[in-house]
């Protein structure tokens, strides 16, 4: 059974650009959640999707957005990149919302110059 | 005060020692997760608890809902257990994370 796949694994952008990250969950999983990890703030919740609906969003500005497709694949987008957006972006999939076992992808490491 | 507090922040032990990592939280929760993160970033889910105790191999996790406290125990620790262990609580469709415990097991 394939795990959670995140692409791209590494990327470098410059301030003001935008970026789109992709997450393919484990087959059959309908919940996909996104997290940002930085040395200063640790792991922080970005948003969670279930059956194409955003269920909740963390305390991030509107530049951070996401969506989920009918096949449960999810994308997140960050517009007008800032230096502070440099981070490891992780997604996780689960069978059920919130109280199921989480399966994490390897992450997308974004560097903003 | 953070919603999720972990202790200790860093822990170094000899191979074979019994390890305990603690997690306290300040709000009512639906579930608590213990996660393991190795260098390089990959995160593995160890346990998801809503009550009681779970065991998987040398790992044991307990939760006391009334006291808002959970512990992760590692018996017969091994150098491959060296990693960052993270506690996360799920409430109102949102996961909140502790700052992690960096565990180093010396052969």
What is this entry, summarized?
The complex is a heterodimer of chains A (113) and B (107). Chain A is mainly beta and 113 residues long.
Structure description:
- The complex is a heterodimer of chains A (113) and B (107).
- Chain A has strands spanning 5-7, 10-13, 19-24, 31-38, 42-50, 53-57, 64-68, 74-78, 87-94, 103-104, 108-112.
- With 113 residues, chain A is mostly beta strands.
- Chain A starts with a strand and ends with a strand.
- The model of chain A has no long low-confidence stretch (mean pLDDT 94).
- Helix content of chain B is 0%, strand content 62%.
- In chain B, strands 2, 4, 5, 9, 10 and 11 form a 6-stranded mixed sheet that branches.
- The N and C termini of chain B lie far apart (36 Å).
- The mean pLDDT of chain B is 94.
Write the layout of secondary structure elements.
The complex is a heterodimer of chains A (113) and B (107).
Chain A: E1 5-7, E2 10-13, E3 19-24, E4 31-38, E5 42-50, E6 53-57, E7 64-68, E8 74-78, E9 87-94, E10 103-104, E11 108-112
Parallel strand pairs in A: 2-11
Antiparallel strand pairs in A: 1-3, 3-8, 4-5, 4-9, 5-6, 7-8, 9-10, 9-11
Chain B: E1 4-7, E2 10-14, E3 19-25, E4 31-37, E5 43-49, E6 52-56, E7 59-64, E8 69-74, E9 83-91, E10 94-97, E11 101-106
Parallel strand pairs in B: 2-11
Antiparallel strand pairs in B: 1-3, 3-8, 4-5, 4-9, 6-7, 7-8, 9-10, 9-11
Number of strands of chain A: 11
What structural category arises from helix and sheet content of chain A?
mainly beta
The overall pLDDT of chain B, averaged over residues, is 94
Strand content of chain A: over 45%
Overall shape of chain A: it is globular
The quaternary structure here is heterodimer
Question: What's the Cα radius of gyration of chain A?
Answer: 13 Å
Question: Main β-sheet of chain B, in a few words?
Answer: 6 strands, mixed
Question: Features of this protein?
Answer:
heterodimer, A: 113 residues, mainly beta, four-stranded antiparallel beta sheet, globular, B: 107 residues, six-stranded mixed beta sheet, five-stranded antiparallel beta sheet, 0% helix, 62% strand
């Amino acid at each position: 059974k394939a795990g959670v796949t995140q692409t791209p694994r590494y990327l470098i952008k410059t301030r003001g650009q935008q970026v789109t990250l992709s997450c393919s969950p484990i087959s059959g999983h309908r919940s996909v959640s996104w997290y940002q990890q930085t040395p200063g703030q640790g792991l922080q919740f970005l948003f969670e999707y279930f059956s194409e609906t955003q269920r909740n969003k963390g305390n991030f500005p509107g530049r951070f957005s996401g969506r989920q497709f009918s096949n449960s694949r999810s994308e997140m987008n960050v517009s007008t990149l800032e230096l502070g957006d440099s981070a490891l972006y992780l997604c996780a999939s689960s069978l059920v919302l919130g109280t199921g076992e989480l399966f994490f992808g390897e992450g997308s490491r974004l560097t903003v110059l | 005060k953070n919603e999720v507090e972990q202790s200790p922040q860093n822990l170094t032990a000899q191979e074979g020692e019994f390890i305990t990592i603690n997690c306290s939280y300040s709000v009512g929760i639906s579930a608590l997760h213990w996660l393991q993160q190795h260098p390089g970033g990959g995160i593995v889910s160890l346990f998801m608890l809503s009550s009681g105790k779970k065991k998987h191999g040398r790992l044991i996790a307990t939760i006391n809902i009334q006291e808002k406290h959970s512990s992760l125990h590692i018996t017969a620790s091994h150098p491959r257990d060296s990693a960052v262990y993270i506690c996360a609580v799920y409430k109102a469709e949102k996961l909140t994370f502790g700052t992690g415990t960096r565990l180093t097991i010396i052969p």
